[in-house]
Fold each of these.
Amino acid sequence: NAGVTQTPKFQVLKTGQSMTLQCAQDMNHEYMSWYRQDPGMGLRLIHYSVGAGITDQGEVPNGYNVSRSTTEDFPLRLLSAAPSQTSVYFCASGYLRPGKRSNYGYTFGSGTRLTVV
Amino acid sequence: KQEVTQIPAALSVPEGENLVLNCSFTDSAIYNLQWFRQDPGKGLTSLLLIQSSQREQTSGRLNASLDKSSGRSTLYIAASQPGDSATYLCAFANTGTASKLTFGTGTRLQVTL
């Protein structure tokens, strides 16, 4: 089924370790973004991309890196994990040109639950 | 900066009731508004999307409206069912920053038998 695929679903890291959260979409969406969800804080934007080769920072970018070499993939890298990065991470892709495409709007992946100890 | 508030934070209703979830926002330069549903431990499922030029959208028992002048959106759920129990989130994309969504903190709905 078409959609947004995130891997892994769960991950435990030690403080200082690095890792990459993977995100792939097969809907040819131009927009992709990463959010983190924390209790009482809602979803907050980390980084986003408006197309291959173009990325920008969101509300909470510190400690994270992204790149977008293809339309399909948008990995999120944690450079040196900290306990404050314990969260649930969601990747989203979107098509935002009004028209007849049935998948107009944003589609979210199922999330990665990350614990940093 | 767009500020989004959802009231109430939690709601419990008996099965069969019609209910309204509220979402208020501060910046009326809306590109679009999307309502999502999130089940515990799961991702977000898109329910309805309203473009800036529209006032409402309907899908089955759900109806969402957008009133930019009052800074308010509502999600109406008709004849609620236990399967509707979830957290409902509204999210806005603003003109000029359509690639970025600003979320409310959600309304947790429980529909009881």
Note: DSSP finds no helices and eleven strands in chain B.
Amino acid sequence: DGGITQSPKYLFRKEGQNVTLSCEQNLNHDAMYWYRQDPGQGLRLIYYSQIVNDFQKGDIAEGYSVSREKKESFPLTVTSAQKNPTAFYLCASSIVGTGLAFYNEQFFGPGTRLTVL
Amino acid sequence: QKEVEQNSGPLSVPEGAIASLNCTYSDRGSQSFFWYRQYSGKSPELIMSIYSNGDKEDGRFTAQLNKASQYVSLLIRDSQPSDSATYLCAVNSLSSNTGKLIFGQGTTLQVKP
């Protein structure tokens, strides 16, 4: 089955601790994205990558880091510098078109719910 | 002004009625428009994409796009209790060419039996 997997489903972080959220896709998509969702709010983009070994900051990148060593994988690290990390984290992927083919339908994984203790 | 705006609701409709969800956007360069459905505690699920002015129908769902007025809407016919969810509008700007989707905050729909 093709799809996007995220792990763990729930994650608890202590103050001052770095944690890494996993995102894997087998859809052969070039682009991958990380979003954060807070209660009652829309999705905000943290980081995105359109090709292996390259990624760009989104709107709220401070306190987060990513890597893109493989096409299938785009892990997100929430560092101790992120002061309010409690949120629902969503990974998505899409094809990368060009020009008018750049429709950018993004498909989401099941999410990781991170709580700071 | 927010880039993508939706009424947060809740929008309450009786079972079998038509639910109308609206979204406005500020970037006139926007080219691609999406509706996602998100059940409580779950991740968003893509239900409709629309790229050209006019209507696009898929089963009970119809997306409507008016680029001149900068709005996109989603109609759900014969609403069912299982349609109760938050509906997110998302917009992609071709001018940015970055793959960045801008999401509205979502409209909560309640379908009452």
Note: Chain B touches chain A through 26 residues (CB under 8 Å).
